[in-house]
Amino acid sequence: MRLSSGSLLLLLVYPIIGWPQGGRLPQPTLWPQDRTAAISLTFDDAMETQLDNAGPVLKNHDLRGTFFVITGPSSTWRMRPRDWQQLAAGGNEIGSHTVNHPCLLAEIEPHSQDYSPEMMHKELRESAREILARLGTQRGLTFAYPCGNMSFGPPTAQARNQALYIDYVAESYFAARGYGGEGEVNPEELNILTVPDLGSTAGKPFPDLLAMMQPAVRGHRWGIFAIHGVGGEWLSVSTEVLDELAAYLQHHTEIWTAPFGDVIRYIQESKALGIRATGHGNQQAQFSLDWPLDPKVFDLPLTLKWQLPPGWTACQAEADGRPLTCTILPKTNQKTILVDVPPQTKSLQFTSK
C-alpha cells in the first residue's frame, strides 16, 4: 500500500499529539477536588456587624467570605482600617461597593439618577484605587453593584448608560456580582460582570437559607449569598443564623465554600486552560498545559481528572518535574485519578506504578 504524503505526515505526528486506544486528555473538574457545588458568602456595605460578628463566625468555622466595602469618608472602611486589614489577612476577599453607594432607589442617597458618566466612572475608579492602596493586593478586585442597579443617570439615559457602567466596571475589576435573586449560577453560562445572587437573606432563619442554596447543590452549580447586617444594622440576618449556615458548610466538605473572586478564578481558568498530549508510552504519558489568563489575577490551582490507560492501576504525577499527589476516585468502572495542578504549570507527566 502506498501512502500519500498527507497520510505519512499524520502517522509521523500521531505518536506526539495523539493518545492511543481511545484515551482521553486530562480535564479540569467542575469544582476543586471534584466537589459537588460551590457556595460563596458575600457581605455588602462595610458594616460594623460584619467586622464584629460575621468575621469571627467565618474564622470559627474555617471559612472565607467576600466583603464588598463602601470606601467613602464616613464608612467603617475609613473608621476601622486595621480591622479590615486583619479580615483580609485571614484570607477573606475585599471587593468594592463604590465610594458612596449611589443607586436608583429613591430612599438611597446619593441618588445615581443625578450621576453623570464622569461621576460614576470616578466612583468606580477611586474605590478600586483606595482598596488596592490599603491592602497592597496584586490579585485584582471584584465588585458588587449597589442595590443591584447596573445603570445610572436620568431615565432617558439609563439604557445608554448601562453599557457605560459595565465598561467602567471592567476597567477596574475582573468580575462583578449583581443583587436581586436571579438564582444559582451555571458555570458554563457565566457572565463575569453580571453574576447573580440567590436573593434576599434579610430576617430569614437557617432552614430558609438552606432551601435557597439547595438548587445550586442539586444542580452542581454555584450559589451566592448576599448578606448585609449580621446581628444588627440593616437587612440583617442574626448572628446565630449565620453561625448555623457556616457550621453546615464547614461540615459538608463536598460543597466548595470559597470567596466570590476565587470561584470566578477557578471557572475562568478551567475554561481557558489548554491541554495537549506531547508523548505517550506503555508506562508514561506527557501533556503540555497553556494558561492564557493574567497570572497575577488568575492564580488558583486546578484539579484535573484523568482516566488511567488500560493496564495501569495507579500512577505518579509530576508538574514541571515536581511531584504531585494522585488520588484515585472510588466507585469508578475504569480507574480515574484526580491531581491538583499548580497555576502556570507547563508540563504534566504521569508514570504508571
SSE order and pairing:
Layout: H1 5-17, E1 27-28, E2 37-44, H2 48-60, E3 66-69, H3 76-79, H4 81-89, E4 93-96, H5 117-135, E5 142-144, H6 158-172, E6 175-177, H7 206-218, E7 222-227, H8 239-251, E8 255-257, H9 260-272, E9 274-280, E10 284-290, E11 302-307, E12 315-319, E13 322-324, E14 327-328, E15 336-341, E16 347-352
Parallel strand pairs: 2-3, 2-7, 2-8, 3-4, 5-6
Antiparallel strand pairs: 1-11, 9-10, 10-16, 11-15, 12-13, 12-16, 14-15
Helix pairs in contact: 2-8, 5-6
Keywords:
single chain; 353 residues; alpha/beta; TIM Barrel; 2 domains; five-stranded parallel β-sheet; five-stranded antiparallel β-sheet; 9 helices; 32% helix; 21% strand; globular; disordered N terminus
Description:
It is a single chain. The chain is an alpha/beta fold and 353 residues long. It has 2 domains: 32-266, Alpha-Beta Barrel (TIM Barrel); 273-352, no CATH class. The protein has 9 helices and 16 strands. The strands form 4 sheets. Strands 2, 3, 4, 7 and 8 form a 5-stranded parallel β-sheet that branches. A 5-stranded antiparallel β-sheet has the order 9-10-16-12-13. β2 (37-44), α2 and β3 (66-69) form a beta-alpha-beta unit. α2 (48-60) runs parallel beside α8 and α5 runs parallel beside α6. The longest helix is centred in the middle third of the chain and has 19 residues, at 117-135. It is globular, with a radius of gyration of 24 Å. The two termini are 39 Å apart.
